[in-house]
Amino acid sequence: MRTRTLIMAAGSLSASLLLVVPGVATAGPKPKPQPKITSSAVVMPFNLDVGRHSVLVADGGQNLVGRLKSDGTIATIAADQPGASGVARSRDGKRLAFTTTVTNFETFENSASGLNIWGPKGKRIYADTHAFETKRNPDLKYHYGVKNPSQCVVDTLTAMQFPVSYTGLVDSHAYSVAAVRNGWVVADAGANALFTVSNAGKIRTLVVLPPQPLTFDKDSAAALGLPDCFIGVTYAFESVPTDVEVGRDGYLYVTTLPGGPETPALGARGKLWRVNPHNGKAKVVAGGFVGATNLAIGKRGEFYVAELFAGRISVVKHGRTSTYLNLPGVVAVETGPDGTLWAGTMANEDPPAPGTIVKIVKGKAKKQSRS
Question: Residue 69: is its pLDDT beyond 80?
């Protein structure tokens, strides 16, 4: 799936979606968190990396990776990085990794994507996930769409320019990255997979996330303007990974979009997964998210999920999901070493609003003072 395009389009829609998307439980921690804007100099802050002394941002709107300064400006670390979306530092702090993707916005096809690894003494390595996907296409094993569709279903989906029945397509969108021992894990939103990448740039497939089937009933078919021949039909949507983090237990935690419409008609279908880093076995931890674009893990093991289409950050504790903070346009969320929660919001066209980086501490906001 071409996730960056979807997220960009959603930026201008997130405010209106807040009016129609059903919410989850609203019992949040007290006192109520109040975010403090530390920067309005970003456009599409798809990911943050929060260290002890600095905050890094991958801004796909400005095609750069930068560092947040105390005055709210962004010091450029890497310029001219098309579709920059993921950013992370190695555990020893000696390497910086960030993802980039070249997209043709007329065809919505990605022609290049990969992980950039900048190491000591100016050493730079590019792990080409697009080339890997072209050669291996790991989700070719999965079938998407409708199996044995009727002619009515075929005609309707074809008229809508929506794929009817297919196996995994060649498409790489290295979207997010997390540092692990001796390397990295990339959440590829085009390949629907997690890739491990060594510091030398060698890529391996850890797991391809399975399809997300949805069976249409009378109400969901009618809401989408589909004919009655869709009632009872199951459509297998793609699982689109948007973020990956390493938990305190050593397992990987991943957020996914459902690879199709995220509307009240189809329900909130975003998910949070737990993935074994050794064998790739994946299990759903929580669901019911609307536009789950990013993930952070708190000091007590709680999970924070950025829900772009719902305009909020949700928190998952002890198997229960609740609203932590309403934040329109939120696309990124991250925690620092001290447990501080940070978030990034996208710029909006109508009404006009800048993208931001915000900080929340134990329900109270504090200004960023590091540079």
Answer: yes
